[in-house]
Each structure stands twice: as C-alpha cells, then as structure tokens.
Amino acid sequence: MRQSQLFTKTRREDPKDELAHNAKLLIRAGFVNKELAGVYSWLPLGLRTVNKLIAIIREEMNALGGVELSLSALQNRDLWQKSGRWDDQVFDAWFKTTLFSGGETGLAPTHEEALTSLMKDHLNSYKDLPIYAYQFQTKFRNELRAKSGLLRGREFLMKDLYSFNDSQAGLDDFYDQVKGAYERIYERVGLGDSTYITFAAGGSFSKYSHEYQTLSEAGEDTIFVSQDKRLAVNKEVLTEETLSELGLKREDLKESRSIEVGNIFKLGTKFSDALGLFFTDQNGQKQPVLMGSYGIGVSRLVGVVAEVLADERGLVWPKSVAPFPAHLIWVPGQGEASAEAADRLYQELTKAGHETLYDDRPLPAGEKFADADLLGLPYRVVVSDKTLAVGKLELKNRSTGETLMVSQAELTSLCFGE
Amino acid sequence: MRQSQLFTKTRREDPKDELAHNAKLLIRAGFVNKELAGVYSWLPLGLRTVNKLIAIIREEMNALGGVELSLSALQNRDLWQKSGRWDDQVFDAWFKTTLFSGGETGLAPTHEEALTSLMKDHLNSYKDLPIYAYQFQTKFRNELRAKSGLLRGREFLMKDLYSFNDSQAGLDDFYDQVKGAYERIYERVGLGDSTYITFAAGGSFSKYSHEYQTLSEAGEDTIFVSQDKRLAVNKEVLTEETLSELGLKREDLKESRSIEVGNIFKLGTKFSDALGLFFTDQNGQKQPVLMGSYGIGVSRLVGVVAEVLADERGLVWPKSVAPFPAHLIWVPGQGEASAEAADRLYQELTKAGHETLYDDRPLPAGEKFADADLLGLPYRVVVSDKTLAVGKLELKNRSTGETLMVSQAELTSLCFGE
C-alpha cells in the first residue's frame, strides 16, 4: 500500500485524554481512534494487525477441530435469567437497553448462554459429541473505569471457544489440547517468553481455571512466577494448599505484575444444567453435557503486544502480526532516479504478492524515518541516491536496530521468507 | 468439511415463531439461529456464505481505491448531538444505554458521525483528498416490527463506504464508479437480472439518491420498473417531474414489490459542516469536505439471495456465495466399497484445495438427498454402488436439476473451475 493513499497521519504528541501507554502509541501511529474511554475504532493499519492475529488464532482453533460461527451481540434476556446472570448484582457490567417492541435486551459480555441454548436444537445423542465451536466476536462490558487503553475495553474483540463433551475424560483431554494451542498462539505473536500459564480460581466443577498472563508493569493482576516450571500462580489462589498441590515453594516464586491474555475454564454442567442441554448416552440415559470455555482477548492482545514490545521510538511489531512485514522508504534526492527505483521495487514486490507499506510521500528523510520507527514495521527498506550508488538496499531491523546493505533477493528472503 | 463434524442439524418443520420465508429456510437448513425477532446468529454454513459475500464486496471496494477500517459500535453522543441525530424524534430507531461511569451511549445505526469526526485528525489539505474508507460492521436499529427475517434486522451486518472529495466533479465521478462496482456485486451474487438501480429521494445536496432494488414479493418497497432502460423509480418520487427528467413514460413502467439491497447517496457538506471537517484548498481557503455514503446490507443480501432464488425443496445458492461449491454424498450400499471411494474422493478434493461439504453420515440416501436439496449447494456429487459400477460420478445441478454422469476430472472442472 502506498502511504500517500493511507489516509492516517501520525502524531508527535501524546493524545491529551489517554493514560495508557499502549493506546497513546496506537493512536499516535494511527492504528486506532478513541471514540470513548475503553472504546476504540480500528484504522487501516490496526485492522490489518487484528486480521493477522485472527488468522493465527483461527488456524490453531481449526487444528483443534473447532468449527467457526458468529453469535449475535443483542441477547435474549430469558436465557440469562435461567442461568442467573441477568441480575446486575450477579454480573455487574451489563449494557442493557430497551426494545421499542417491549422488553429488554443486553449486549453480550460473553456467550455461554446463547451457545448452550442454541445447541439444544442440534445435539441429542452421544453420537453428536464432541462439538467444539468458536467465534471472533465483539463483547461489551460496562466498565466503571476504562483507563488501560486496549487492555480493558468497554467494547472489545474476543475469540471464544466452547467445548461440549460427553465425558470428563473427553473434556480433560480437549482442555489439555487447548493449552498446547494457546502456547503456540502466544509464541507466534511474539509473547511466548513473557507469557505464563497461571493457576487461578476455578468454580464448582474444577478447583482451578488457567489464565495466560503476560508480564508487564501495566498489568492489573499480580502473579507469582516459577521460572523453572514456566508457570505462575495468581495471587487470588496463593495459599499453602495450592503451593503444596503444585509442588512449589513460596521462596522460589517471583511476584510480578501481569496482563491476562487468555483464560481457559472447565464449566462442567453449570450451563447445561441451567439451560437444559442434555444428551442421551450409550445406555439411553439423559445426561447434562460437559462444557468448557476458552477465551483470548484479541483486541487486548494487540494492546499487549504494543505495550510490551514497544521502545522509546514507537511500536515494535513481530512479523507475524505486523500490518506489513516491510516498510519501503523512498528518500527524495537529486533528480528522479531514487523515486523511479523505489517505485519499481514497490511494483515488483507487489506483483510477487509481498505486501509492503511504501512511503512514497515527498517528505524529508528524517520525518519519514521517525514515522517508520513509530509505526514499527519489522523491516525498514531504504531507497536513496546513496543506496543506488552502491547498487544495494538498506535494510534495518526495527527490533534489533541492525542495519544491512542487501540485494533485492536478500531483501525478499529476509522480509518475506518464512 | 465432513458433515459428521458439522454440528448443525436440519429441520423438516418450519420454526413456529418465524413469518419470513428467508428466515424459515435459513433456520431449517441450519445457516442461522434466531436469538430474538430481527436478531440472528450465524451458524457455520451461514458464516461461510457471509464471508464469501464479504470477499466479493471487499474486492470491489479495493478496486475503487477504498481503504478498510472498522469503527466501534458504541457511539459518542456528543457527535450525534452536533449532527442533530441523537434525538429520538429525528432518528427513531436508537438503542441507547447508560455508561456506569456517567452519561449515555448508543449503538451505531450508521457511521457518518464517527467517521467524519475522526477524519478531522487525518485530513488537512486538498493534497490529502480524495479519501475512500469502508468497513464491514454490525449496525443496530431498534425496529418496532422485525418480521422479515434477515431482510430487516435489529442487528445486521453492513458494508458502508464513505467518500471524501475536494470538488463536486470528484464526488460525481466517484459516485459513478460506485454504480459500476454495485452492478458487478449484484451480478456476482446471482441477483443481476432481478436488481434495478432505482431513483429515490435525495436530500439538500442532491435531488435523487439511488437505491438498488431486487424484485420480490417479500419486499417492503414499491418501485416502477423500466425494463428497456434497466432502471426503476421508487414510488416516493414517482411524479410527472421525475418522469420527464428521466425521459420515462408512466405507461412503460411496471409496478413491482422489491427489496432494497443497496443505497448510494451524495451527502454533500451536510456532515462536514455539522462536525467541522474542512480542508485547505489550493488557494489556501478553508472549505468543507464533500462527502458521499454507499451502503450494502450484507446480512440482508444473504436473506435476499435465500428468498429470491430458493425453490420448494430449499435453498439455491449461486456458486459465488455458496458455503461450499459442492456437496459430496456417500450413499451407503453393499460392503465398504462406496464409503472407501467417497472418502478417497473427499481427500483428493481437499488436498487439491477444493472445499467440499462431505456427507459421510450413515443415513439413508433419501434423507441425505432431502438435506442436500434444503442446504442448496450448487453441485451434488453422488458416490454409490451404482456410480462405482459404471466408473463415473453422478453430478446434479441444484439450480437446473440437470444430472450428468461425469469423470473426476470433469467434476473438478465443473464444480471448482472459474
């Protein structure tokens, strides 16, 4: 994409009404627009990153046998009354609204009720199980405070996967498979090293749930990390009993601030009992379906990558989720030579299917380099009179700062290879 | 996809609480689930159709120079107060809700206000123009009656494109380009013959807007069609003046019921004036930006294709938007031969990247064929003892009913060729 056609402009100054580092950077770089506290629109670069993230997660969900669907935002109150979660005392972050035709509806903060209920039309027998269904869907939560940018939104994008099994063994097995998928996802988006599976409070059907927590001072959670075992314990369940069960010693754990980037939970029969989701087993007996739910905050994850990987000059995207892997910069010089060379390179890359952001704007080099640093694409490629003179391209790695003079073939391999 | 893994089940009976033909069929075929009147969730097959439709529209929007973004659902009340459309007397289909932190917000029924406002941060000079920005985003409208299934949703998916130009000539030219793109879209989704560009009421900046109307008895609109000129006039502007301006005679026009499947509108400076979106022209003068808006109801279009193309046996999808181009049906017979042959064919098609729905369920042929007719995929491919005996595959065209015995190479070319 030519930057002259990308309408977003960068800002040198932090937005006045924003406290969170991730949102400041994403707004300055033109990835998002703030509509209200905790409500952001995706501008073209931000949307590209969201879509890259979705593609990675979708691949992992499909590999688990997940089937994709998309549930509505407006919710049927009756279902939430059956589960007991319509009450504002029970669930305190509802956006509720009135139907002009009579009655109330609410904006989905999560989708257990809706999905459990619709499964009743599609699931009768043990032969229909297991079912794994997931979606990428907007959730709404009426947060009293929303000062953490994309880390805590009032409107945010989530991947939520739900499992339906006919046995505890089936649920347990799938739950373990999801752990593997989640590890791969955090690894693939560049947060593998800083993200820990974390024991957290469970419910009536399981002693613990598991969170995935990324270390960050911007986080709202406190966890206790075992580096050796690559796991952590949420402060809320840090008891002698937990430590002994997990074979941990308090003195080996390091207290850290962290951001929850995922949560997996064995629901058991909580929702199937409440909403009447039963199957007939091999003996002809009716049984409630065993369920699990598995979430990843997609928009939050964009915020976390921004927050955790950025440096003092701006955003730093891993190649996997960068809006473009490479930022081609034309540096205006004497005559037309550099412009022609940059144009030609852009066209060749585009023709080869290599998506590139091309800064074709007639601006001073310093301004373009500052923009490139702020946008944070993995590789900066410079075409200037100087690079033309030596018959090479200048390639700079945004993350390491390393600069190389390379041939076009080397460029292609480094920026667009696997 | 193996049908044994697709969790949705078909229904023989119409749902009791649904009046609209499109929704009855889509529910029976397991494409959607009804959550509330006018609120539907997308089940896996329906979501696949939505995504095919999105891909077609996205291609046409990108060809126009459109840049994709995604605006929030929760709206900033201040902006709508500036445009005068927050008032329920002015816009009568708001879903409004309260922020626990204080104040009100509403669910976006459209996005002119939000986009016009955010452009103020990105647009200063005539050099920044034109800008064409579009999105696929959920809209919410608090309809008093929502009895038309997917044709009139309280929550629905729209493609909305907005143009920003520095001159009337630029706006006019882009507006004409959009007409071409819209014609291609309706043609590509199988509604080309039954869809007419229709003159409708304009606003303060243009005498007419244009709707795209698809002929259907299920429609809520009344239009007057000129077959010769391939255009129509909405009843609301059918005056002597209109007829004379368009060179039409009343007696040549045929009155028809129709469904609005798109709307394009020159907004002029209505929103840029109200929200203060100005640019500096070549003479250094501040001018309001000229805008246009261009909508297509994506979920409605799924409903229209379902409603208009279906027959008495079920849905009939054009190849372009079918969840899968082909429905491979294994007919259980003597021994394992047919199952093995069907499995092998499915694996070969999948390996070649040909996405196929594979009915691998051990059910009687009649039940499978009835399901296939209801789902309405373009080609039904049968593997049975009978087809094995003649060394061919049975291929049936869902739309024409034509049945052929074909080789695997012919099957691939017919079902998956261009």
TrEMBL record, chains A, B:
UniProt key word Protein biosynthesis: yes
Keywords linked to the UniProt accession: Aminoacyl-tRNA synthetase, ATP-binding, Ligase, Nucleotide-binding, Protein biosynthesis
Show the Gene3D superfamilies listed in the entry: Anticodon-binding domain, Bira Bifunctional Protein, Domain 2
Q: Which residues form a coiled coil?
A: none
**What is one Pfam family matched by this protein?**
tRNA-synt_2b
Does the keyword field hold Secreted? no
Q: Which GO terms describe its cellular component?
A: cytosol
Tell me, which GO biological process terms does this entry list? prolyl-tRNA aminoacylation
Main enzyme class = ligase
By what name is this protein known? Proline--tRNA ligase
Residues annotated as domain Aminoacyl-transfer RNA synthetases class-II family profile: 38-318
Which catalysed reactions does the entry list for this protein? tRNA(Pro) + L-proline + ATP = L-prolyl-tRNA(Pro) + AMP + diphosphate
User: So what EC number does this one have?
Assistant: 6.1.1.15
Q: What InterPro entries has UniProt attached to this entry? A: aa-tRNA-synt_IIb, aa-tRNA-synth_II, aa-tRNA-synth_II/BPL/LPL, Anticodon-bd, Anticodon-bd_dom_sf, Pro-tRNA-ligase_IIa, Pro-tRNA_synthetase, ProRS_anticodon_short
GO MF annotation: an example: proline-tRNA ligase activity
* PANTHER family on file: MITOCHONDRIAL RIBOSOME PROTEIN L39/PROLYL-TRNA LIGASE FAMILY MEMBER (PTHR42753), PROLINE--TRNA LIGASE (PTHR42753:SF2)
